[in-house]
Amino acid sequence: MSLNLGGSVYDPTDPVGRLLFNVLAMVAEFESDLIRLRNREGMKIAKAKGHLRGKQPKLNHRQEAHLVALLESGEYTTAELADLFNVARSTVYRAVERERVLRASTPPTSTPRGEN
After folding, report:
1. What is the pLDDT of residues 57-73, one digit of tens each?
2. Taking burial as the number of CB atoms within 10 A of a residue's CB, which of 16, 96, 101, 114 is the most buried?
3. Which residue, 106, 108, 76, 104, is CA-closest to 92?
């Protein structure tokens, strides 16, 4: 393998060729770092302006709660609910998981004494 630039042939096995290839690799890495830096700066500016929000959810909180209630009632399967709400089955599973985590993090309400 060799590199032909302007009539000169550079072989990566000799010292001058290795130097040239290393310099080209460093320039390429520098360019990559500059692109990454500009990208991060742009994302920071967009976030500060409120433009960086990500993908909007398919279901709002009310729809998600309704979906979980229907699943827990036992009337529908996950596939039927996915079709009914026009989402993928994985979205149904994620909604159920979010509801489970929400319930686990919410402290249970205590019942007055004598009502057991």
Report:
1. 889 999 999 999 999 99
2. 96
3. 76
